[in-house]
Amino acid sequence: xxxxxxxxxxxxxxxxxxxxxxxxxxxxxxxxxxxxxxxxxxxxxxxxxxxxxxxxxxxxxxxxxxxxxxxxxxxxxxxxxxxxxxxxxxxxxxxxxxxxxxxxxxxxxxxxxxxxxxxxxxxxxxxxxxxxxxxxxxxxxxxxxxxxxxxxxxxxxxxxxxxxxxxxxxxxxxxxxxxxxxxxxxxxxxxxxxxxxxxxxxxxxxxxxxxxxxxxxxxxxxxxxxxxxxxxxxxxxxxxxxxxxxxxxxxxxxxxxxxxxxxxxxxxxxxxxxxxxxxxxxxxxxxxxxxxxxxxxxxxxxxxxxxxxxxxxxxxxxxxxxxxxxxxxxxxxxxxxxxxxxxxxxxxxxxxxxxxxxxxxxxxxxxxxxxxxxxxxxxxxxxxxxxxxxxxxxxxxxxxxxxxxxxxxxxxxxxxxxxxxxxxxxxxxxxxxxxxxxxxxxxxxxxxxxxxxxx
Length: 455
Known about the structure:
Layout: E1 2-4, H1 8-12, H2 16-19, E2 21-24, E3 27-35, E4 41-46, E5 52-56, E6 60-64, E7 71-76, E8 89-94, E9 103-110, E10 116-124, E11 129-139, E12 149-152, E13 156-160, E14 179-183, E15 200-203, E16 208-213, E17 219-223, E18 230-234, H3 253-262, E19 269-271, E20 277-283, E21 294-299, E22 310-316, E23 323-329, E24 337-342, E25 349-354, E26 364-370, E27 386-388, E28 395-399, E29 408-413, E30 418-423, E31 428-432, E32 439-445, E33 448-454
Parallel strand pairs: 1-23
Antiparallel strand pairs: 2-3, 3-26, 4-5, 5-6, 6-7, 8-9, 9-10, 10-11, 12-13, 13-14, 14-15, 16-17, 17-18, 18-19, 20-21, 21-22, 22-23, 24-25, 25-26, 27-28, 28-31, 29-30, 29-32, 32-33
């Protein structure tokens, strides 16, 4: 059963404060703007340095402080038509051991009328991404370029590609377009790929732009349909997903014949008319019990979709092979939701909004949705970790809230390196920082974080 929640502002014209407060079951969520001047945020991901990283379609990668919303530009690329259409800077992943392994992979399109799509890896030097190494190049187009990235177990990289406006590419195993590719971190082909000496992991895809790992380590993709059947798919190696001969389920005589011949994988769920589904995230944190163990999917609202952009939250069967239920949220913003990231400490999540209309008109905003009420503290930034003295030197007193007890205590420097790691045993304790280099640090607990200046 599907229940659509069109939120109070859309229905009743509540005040701005009412619009930014949402009830999900028994949980109250507070929405605040983290970044309100982003240039079409495409990928947002929580980094191993406890910063929020964002690729913007216009060519920038920005690194955002989740405490303040302040950000720095760490990469600026020349992309197709300055990212004003569909091609531009797209998917991005950081190494699973980042920042100890300081590599970041990005996909971007360049060229104007002859568009090329590139998978490149960069090195993080503490202030910017440098030393580009191009790993893979394939044809791009003005539409249908993919491209979401995801780490699989075993550190293999998945990359979705669109059909580059040529539907027959998807059924051509000699083409890398219209596929999901599986790639070694250095750009080589894994020996155990399903089609031998080929990057191809799945085929018959039209334009998948969402990937996540969900229950039982199963992998899911969201894929744009043409005029019908946007698809939420279970990703299995070597499987054909039917495009352009099959849209959605195998439910016409010609589709049934094609599906039988080519072992087509039908979607777990499909939407008609197309709703322009996008980024996926598996929410496992206990902060929002109503979302725990469910898959979150950004929806941008398709051309014939009568509803605004929204977040769809899907409950999966125990084995992860079926969608049991789905609900929709945050339609009151009337914006296209491109991607989702989750704060692993607090369970807060972030949504990347791509404006009110295709392909990404302003405003472009990254919002935080948290169970902490920003109005409960005098500062617009929630700081549940109290550190004294400021600036710190030698030894500091740290006070935390109840929810942080027996949870992690992590301190990182400005470059994202861990300088201290432990567990919170009491609500107030002392930490020795003798010999620490002067500068800004961030102290994280299970309920939030605060900056710490060391002199």
